[in-house]
Design brief:
Layout: E1 3-8, H1 13-22, E2 24-26, H2 29-42, H3 47-54, H4 58-65, H5 73-82, E3 85-90
Antiparallel strand pairs: 1-2, 1-3
Helix pairs in contact: 3-4, 3-5
């Protein structure tokens, strides 16, 4: 089963180096929500401001951040785009726990 990695979209060499260090691993909706929340807070955005950037309601952002399992992929992609993040799918790794090591 694949896992999802969220990467900031950065363009220069230094930024690409930072991207490798900032990759976050998510294997379920709750983890995706936590990553979205952390990215939003790092950018100093409220849920309402992020929703406005993504063309969504604040309540929708809140549902995503709490790991709502009924979220549509299209909605998640809108939020990721508004945060300058992208979704990458990679084979599941057993040695690198990523975000799971935080729990």
């Amino acid at each position: 089963m694949p896992f999802y990695v969220l990467h900031p979209i950065l363009t220069d060499y230094r930024a690409q180096h930072i991207t490798r260090r900032m990759s976050d691993l998510a294997r379920d909706p709750k983890q995706i929500g936590n990553l979205i929340r952390r990215a939003r807070k790092r950018r100093g955005l409220s849920q309402g401001a992020l929703g406005a950037k993504a063309g969504l309601r604040q309540e929708t952002v809140s549902l995503l951040e709490t790991g709502n399992e009924t979220a549509k992929l299209e909605t998640i992609l809108k939020v990721l785009s508004a945060l300058d993040l992208e979704l990458r799918i990679a084979p599941r790794s057993k040695g690198d726990l990523g975000i799971e090591s935080d729990f």
